[in-house]
Description:
Chain A contains 9 helices and 18 strands. Chain A is an alpha/beta fold. Chain B contains 15 helices and 1 strand; from the N terminus they run ααβααααααααααααα. By secondary structure, chain B is mainly alpha-helical. At the A-B interface, helix 1, helix 2, helix 3, strand 4 and helix 4 of A face helix 1, strand 1, helix 4, helix 8 and helix 15 of B. Strand 4 of chain A pairs antiparallel with strand 1 (39-42) of chain B, so a sheet runs across the interface.
Amino acid sequence: xxxxxxxxxxxxxxxxxxxxxxxxxxxxxxxxxxxxxxxxxxxxxxxxxxxxxxxxxxxxxxxxxxxxxxxxxxxxxxxxxxxxxxxxxxxxxxxxxxxxxxxxxxxxxxxxxxxxxxxxxxxxxxxxxxxxxxxxxxxxxxxxxxxxxxxxxxxxxxxxxxxxxxxxxxxxxxxxxxxxxxxxxxxxxxxxxxxxxxxxxxxxxxxxxxxxxxxxxxxxxxxxxxxxxxxxxxxxxxxxxxxxxxxxxxxxxxxxxxxxxxxxxxxxxxxxxxxxxxxxxxxxxxxxxxxxxxxxxxxxxxxxxxxxxxxxxxxxxxxxxxxxxxxxxxxxxxxxxxxxxxxxxxxxxxxxxxxxxxxxxxxxxxxxxxxxxxxxxxxxxxxxxxxxxxxxxxxxxxxxxxxxxxxxxxxxxxxxxxx
Amino acid sequence: xxxxxxxxxxxxxxxxxxxxxxxxxxxxxxxxxxxxxxxxxxxxxxxxxxxxxxxxxxxxxxxxxxxxxxxxxxxxxxxxxxxxxxxxxxxxxxxxxxxxxxxxxxxxxxxxxxxxxxxxxxxxxxxxxxxxxxxxxxxxxxxxxxxxxxxxxxxxxxxxxxxxxxxxxxxxxxxxxxxxxxxxxxxxxxxxxxxxxxxxxxxxxxxxxxxxxxxxxxxxxxxxxxxxxxxxxxxxxxxxxxxxxxxxxxxxxxxxxxxxxxxxxxxxxxxxxxxxxxxxxxxxxxxxxxxxxxxxxxxxxxxxxxxxx
Lengths: 419, 309
């Protein structure tokens, strides 16, 4: 299979001084130059930042490649270079085929012009020939759903209509290679759905897609492969789900395991918590779990003396701090006052229950003291883990890869009969 | 996802092949040979400016579209629309005729003063609009510069094309005066009229390339232009005939290409005195030097535009 995009040790350096001078006035430069001559000041070398350093990869024709990384990691710089908006400082890239991009949805739209005129204008800006635009004009208008207003200046459009028309033009570009940047952060849900739909459509017809996004579920579902850029460098490359799992593992902070020594262990004279662990999933980095599989939360605790019937309890919160649920071990073994010793209890959170994102676990050793639960040992925000949907279509999202709200995301049984 | 083709599982296996079951009515773009032809190589910017006329030719449709956009928007935003292209030179000329012709008695030679002034105002008006539009074109098209690739030369180039429309629309004012004073041009020199306008285009393009490149970094250009344009008509002989002033000053003014443009244009369309060809040669040389320096500056700073703008 031939290579569509070949990137060879691409680097981009920014001089910070350049930024400062960018919006300066001529006066500042003249004054500066004057001072240098008068006082023989040495030209201070501007500090440099490598926005991209030695990045190499290849994208075979027809592959859908996701690019992930934190803000400022260099993803956008990479895209700017590949779309030829900015020049690299070093290195080289080759792109074989006609390029289109969804970074410039609506770029160059003019408020005064009508929808029809803007289709032609925007089409030309995106690199379509006039003849091509004429051929596709009816399709574009139909796809946008603004037929009635096509001869109205776009300044009278609602923002939704505006975006739909703009996207319709971009979507009919018929590129062989498509660059997509954070389209999911603009527009309404409908628009996002269309963007992803169009991307899938292009992927289906064997086009090469380079998809830069923060929306990890979408990357997981749409991309065959992902690369991970951090600090301007390529730090991960492989199957999308694996790269995302590694990325989540690196970025999530509190860890998936905590242990305490006998002295420092939290608790009272009755019980102490010694360790809390999120059991790792096979094939996943620690702290990242597959949404479809059950997760084991292990609590290791000491019972110091025989006193009350004790039992372990966990509380799971989502990344915004909303309580997903509380759960405690209601087994008969905890009905009698507990015997001194060390116990390891594991709570199994079923698969397809939590939503994607971070989950925070709190653990406690309790006894019932109606109407309260008495906490003998408790750890707040003890451990956390990341829930990942590898996007294989058998989770609660099915084929959908857009935003999915909710603290939990159960996979329900549905029945349906024809009435 | 109504339009989406094969379900996901199927897609994963079908990647790379053109999915024949895709219900989309649009044909995929032809591939193979066609795609292989479109290889884009990205490498660091070279230090030497390149002209790359081939690329410019490839993007000609975009140039026309941008020009069309600017013309359309200009006339759409105004109530009087196209009428402004006539009103502005007519009004300016009227003021000049009264102030300089009647009160100050500026020298006009053999030409009727109103014709002389209008024939000077039209190219000068063109120059003024073209300079403002083209020099600020990178900034006024900021979203394009930071989001889409195309040769940035198109922007100043389009900027100097747009006011040509105004120029042509304003010509009837001149025609009316020619008819009124019955000063129809007679000789072959009429054929040189477009050449003098071309000289104006080359001059303004050269200066605009230079100023546009500077303006990316220093926003002072916006303030410099009006000052420059206020003095320029006096230095270009808009309200007097250059051949009527002392010869020493004629030569000094000839370093301004617009002096040749206006004198030559009057000769071509008004049957005015033939300009001194030595002076025209000086003007042409200055224009060409400005153009070359401007274009070289523009092309060599072009790679950094998106980073600094």
